[in-house]
From TrEMBL:
InterPro entries: OMP_efflux, TolC-like. The keyword Hydrolase does not apply. Keywords: Cell outer membrane, Coiled coil, Membrane, Signal, Transmembrane, Transmembrane beta strand, Transport. Pfam families: OEP. Its main location: membrane. Residues 1-18 form the signal peptide. Belongs to the outer membrane factor (OMF) (TC 1.B.17) family. Residues 242-276 form a coiled coil. This is TolC family protein. It is found in: Cell outer membrane.
Length: 480
């Protein structure tokens, strides 16, 4: 009984720990990269590229084919061994092995292999870009949850102050030091703050659900994140010159690498298309054998009458006949040879070379070459456009990071000013030198300043991480 109770306690403890688990940003990113459907689809693209590469390598190997057939013939049929027509029922079988090898095909096999390797590399770059995008989505969703939680803390702490003010104002109203309207004003502020708290709690739940859906986590009720220890961590990227960041982005970003590999793929397609104008030389070797169970006829000397005398001519002068002695042969039916013996007796081989020279195929090859060249031009334009887009994006990310930093610094200064104004208004209100309305306005500006600092802070963190990503720092190594 004690063992059962101990096991139940352990299970309850484990279940409680699982329910109270709070996900860190790194855990969320890693989980998303392992379970996101788009990432899995990109991984399948790499698997397909591996198969294409294996197939391209197989083109360099000889082809080997074997065949066999069995038939039973009734009536007039040709014996496959003697090639004689026979009117009877017999069983026959045949087998063959053929080997073929391409000696030259206009270098298309080599270029197809090169193309398969380039395609595999492009698939890997697409997977890297997908992981970067997913990591940014997760980071953005994660920081949004933290922002909403920070705003909730601001609202709750300020509402606690409001509760204290209600108690103090109630005492002053009952003592006749303040009018009852001030108490009603403070209570109206309390009701508005509680409504804002409810809205903030709903915002947290919504952003948590959005993040859980992005991670493909279905347990929305217990899902939560670690909301402590995240601050502005600048590794010096924001102080770097834009030209340095742009050069690093062109060197490391997957968008450019994908476009470059697409150009290389198009070049290989042009080469492969041109290879169709060259002759193809192949070699072949074949082995075949036959079997039949039907009997055959052979000529042999008659044992009862081995020789016969036949006239072979006449002496012209005398008219005397000239005779000769000849073997006396007869047709004798013999049974079929054993199966194994026939395989060696009836076999044959064939080998040679095949040369195919393309002369005219209705402009199909010419059209294929032109299409490949047009596609090459298109990919070159796409590469140029990708470089322009990346340059524009990096500049925008750089300006956004700089702007969000200034916005954050301005928000901090504003908060300091609003805090001083709030403290002054509170002191005046406590001694009855200002009314509740003016105090509530000062308090509301102070609350808004705190919320704005939170918004500017996490906006700057995210935009700074975007800039670091363009600088070549892997998404899984970004520090928050």
């Amino acid at each position: 009984m004690k063992k059962i109770v101990s096991i139940l306690i352990v299970l309850i403890t484990i279940s409680s720990q699982a329910q109270n688990k709070k996900w860190t940003l790194i855990e969320c990113v890693q989980y998303a990269l392992e379970n996101n459907i788009s990432v899995k689809q990109s991984e399948l693209d790499i698997a397909i590229a591996d198969i294409d590469e294996l197939t391209a390598k197989g083109n360099f190997m000889p082809s080997l084919n074997a065949g066999a057939g069995v038939s039973e013939n009734t009536g007039l049929s040709f014996n496959p061994v003697t090639n004689n027509a026979q009117t009877e029922t017999f069983l026959s079988a045949s087998g063959n092995i053929n080997v073929g090898y391409t000696l030259f095909d206009g270098l298309r096999n080599i270029r197809t292999l090169h193309r398969a390797k380039i395609s595999k590399l492009a698939s890997q770059y697409r997977l890297d870009k997908m992981k970067d995008d997913i990591s940014l989505f997760v980071a953005n969703g994660y920081l949004q949850v933290i922002l909403n939680k920070a705003n909730l803390e601001v609202l709750q702490s300020q509402n606690a102050v409001t509760q204290e003010q209600i108690d103090r104002t109630t005492q002053l109203v009952e003592a006749g030091s303040l009018p009852r309207g001030d108490l009603l004003e403070i209570k109206a502020i309390d009701a508005s703050e509680k409504q804002n708290i409810v809205n903030a709690e709903n915002a947290i739940q919504i952003t948590l659900i959005n993040l859980a859906q992005l991670l493909l986590i279905k347990d929305y009720e217990t899902f939560d994140i670690e909301d402590e220890g995240y601050d502005v961590v600048d590794g010096g990227i924001a102080d770097k010159d834009i030209s340095e960041i742009l050069a690093k982005a062109k060197e490391s970003r997957s968008e450019i690498k994908i476009a470059e590999q697409n150009v290389e793929l198009a070049k290989k397609d042009v080469q492969i298309a041109k290879g169709a104008n060259l002759p193809t030389l192949s070699a072949f070797f074949g082995y075949n054998t036959r079997f039949t169970n039907t009997s055959s006829f052979i000529q042999q000397v008659d044992p009862d009458n081995p020789t016969s005398i036949q006239q072979i001519g006449v002496v012209e002068a005398t008219g005397q006949s000239v005779v000769g002695e000849f073997p006396n042969t007869i047709l004798q039916e013999v049974g079929a040879d054993p199966f194994i013996d026939q395989l060696s007796l009836n076999d044959g081989i064939g080998y040679g070379l095949n040369l195919s020279i393309p002369i005219f195929n209705g402009f199909a090859t010419k059209g294929s070459i032109k299409r490949s060249k047009i596609n090459l031009q298109r990919t070159e334009y796409q590469l140029e456009q990708a470089e322009l887009d990346l340059e524009s994006t990096v500049y925008q990310a750089y300006v956004d990071a700089k702007g969000s930093l200034k916005s954050y610094e301005a928000a901090v200064l504003s908060l300091e000013s609003q805090e001083l104004a709030y403290d002054y208004a509170k002191e005046r209100y406590d001694v009855g030198l200002t009314n509740a309305f003016d105090f509530s306005q000062s308090k509301q500006r102070f609350d808004n300043a705190k919320i704005e600092v939170n918004r500017a802070k996490y906006d700057y963190i995210f935009k700074l991480k975007v800039l670091e990503l363009y600088f070549g720092i892997p998404a899984t190594e970004l520090k928050f």
